[in-house]
Write a structure and sequence with these properties.
By secondary structure, this protein is mainly α. It is 62% helix and 0% strand. The longest helix is centred in the C-terminal third of the chain and has 27 residues.
Length: 76
């Protein structure tokens, strides 16, 4: 699986993490499902720093996808 992803990324050209030139259409149901699975909630005091950072990353990806979904809906 990792090979397939790296092959796909390699075929798209150089990786520039700060910019995405092409993004396939984002399904609103996917963003909703991810937001349900990884909710944006305040961290619990019992969580380690590492777990807090990990969960913050999950939420960051969902926020980014939601932002891109809004942009795609504006274009359509």
């Amino acid at each position: 699986m990792l090979w397939a992803v790296s092959s796909l990324v390699g075929s798209l050209g150089p990786v520039r993490p700060w910019r995405v030139d092409y993004l396939p259409p984002i399904d609103e149901r996917l963003v909703a499902a991810l937001a349900t699975q990884f909710p944006d909630v305040a961290p619990d005091i019992s969580m380690s720093d590492r777990e807090i950072i990990y969960r913050a990353g999950q939420v960051s990806v969902i926020r980014w996808l939601a932002s891109k979904l809004e942009e795609q809906q504006e274009v359509i």
